[in-house]
Amino acid sequence: ENSLYFRDRARSMGLNTGAAIGCGVVPILFASPMQTMIASQALLEQGVYAPPIVQIGVPKDQPRIRFFLSAAHTHEQMDKAIAIAAAVAHGEGSAQAELLQQAVVGA
Questions:
Q1: CA 64 – CA 35 distance, rounded (Å)
Q2: 72-92 pLDDT, tens per residue?
Q3: How far is CA 58 from CA 48, 55, 64, 67, 70, in A?
Q4: pLDDT digit string (tens) for 17-68?
Q5: Backbone torsions φ then ψ of 83, nearest 5 degrees
Q6: DSSP-assigned beta bridge partners for residue 65
Q7: Whether the Cβ atoms of residue 26 and residue 20 lie closer than 8 Å to each other
Q8: DSSP states along 23-79
Q9: What is the DSSP letter of 1?
């Protein structure tokens, strides 16, 4: 049930969940590997561990974060993760995300 909730909420926020059917693992696909890494960092800064999956692990043009959901997750926790992912995906990332991008590009 939580996986379906997460998938449906993510889609309602304009996020691409690919062909997810809502069975335990729900991906959110991003426009670029950089955006995926920024989203992962923004999530981590808010206490959500969701590592990025980029080229090699998935096709180059389909970077994502896979969310592993269980019955223990609350709607509040899932909504928080979705809101953070949506902010990054829709270009509303925090100043911290912009600093991360600068750091990665400058490295």
A1: 9
A2: 999 999 999 999 999 999 987
A3: 22, 5, 8, 15, 23
A4: 998 887 889 999 999 999 999 999 999 999 999 999 888 878 788 899 999 9
A5: -60, -40
A6: 28, 52
A7: yes
A8: SSEEEEE-SSHHHHHHHHHHHHHTT----EE-BTTB-TT--EEEEE--TT--HHHHH
A9: -
